[in-house]
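Standup notes, structure subgroup. Blocker cleared on the nicotinamide-adenine-dinucleotide input:
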Amino acid sequence: MKTALFSSKSYDSEYFSVANTAFDHDITFFETRLKSRTADLAEGYDAVCVFVNDVIDRETIAKLKEHGVKIIALRSAGFNHVDLAAADEYDIKLVRVPAYSPQSIAEHALALILTLNRKTHKAYNRVRDGNFSLERLTGFNVGGRTVGVIGTGKIGSVFARIMLGLGCHVLAYDKYVNKELADTGVEYVSLDKLLAGSDIISLHCPLTPETAYLINRQTLSMMKPGVMLINTSRGALINTNDIIESLKKEHVGSLGIDVYEQEEKLFFRDRSHEILQDDQIARLMTFPNVLITAHQAFFTREALEQIAVTTLQNLKDFEEGKELVNEVRLSDLQ
Ligand code: NAD
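Run returned:
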């Protein structure tokens, strides 16, 4: 299938080219992001393949339709960046990679917790600089602590099991109870109880109208002083202004984020030579107890292989008129 792959990085072309030997799609790799201004590049392609920070709004979708694109293949699980109503209206199919490697994201959440807690990122730099002091590197034992998991789907349930393995008491909040997980010792509670009772809170629910700004001034005020908050899900689950206020008041003890509300203007590019225009992330970067990674939780070899294979299979199924098992429909939002 003639496919325009947008937001292409070296690892995309590497993993897709290897996986494509079994599919033989005709893929062109574009480094640019897909948005309405770049959608003309898709002229003459049957499919576009996009990542989390491509802008798949109504305007982009209208242009894709005009250019004959029939299907949008997401290289991600999340689809909050797509105007589903517009895709439905213009009759463009949408497919995604619902699960590639829940371990990759869950393990990155753990990496953020342990790094923030034991300050290994600071210790590494200190020692390289000949500074062998332990001053201000004190952490706490994670085993025995209470960890709150919001969203116990594929990633949240792997994360919950990891934390159980570390000897934590795990509280969970989800719209649906995962019975199998509850049987392992995870305690399902109300959101209020989870917020009030957790030493560490990790977000693993999708970004929907219901979960946008789930973490805000009010929910932050319900958390224990000194709480560690981890977000590997989507940036807009947290109200950035409110978390900055809470960090300044020293209510939130530490924050680890792999996703950021305004990340589409920043992430996945080397901007080290530019003047940073985003004052909120600049402020977050000044806190010694904030750790930011640039949406890399998914970034393992296993996940990249799985993303490529599933995406190429999704396109093949469409080409052959088969059932689209990974289709995203408008009803998925409702
Ligand atoms: P999933 O669909 O398997 O699980 C999501 C869970 O959240 C479900 O159990 C669902 O019931 C629950 N949920 C939905 N609305 C809720 C609400 N209002 N309150 C509480 N729980 C709610 O998804 P997943 O595969 O576990 O992925 C979770 C999220 O992780 C994705 O939506 C995506 O945003 C993010 N993600 C991030 C990366 C990364 O690299 N940082 C990679 C993949 C996925």
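Discussed briefly. The mean pLDDT is 96.
Next: hand off to the docking folks.
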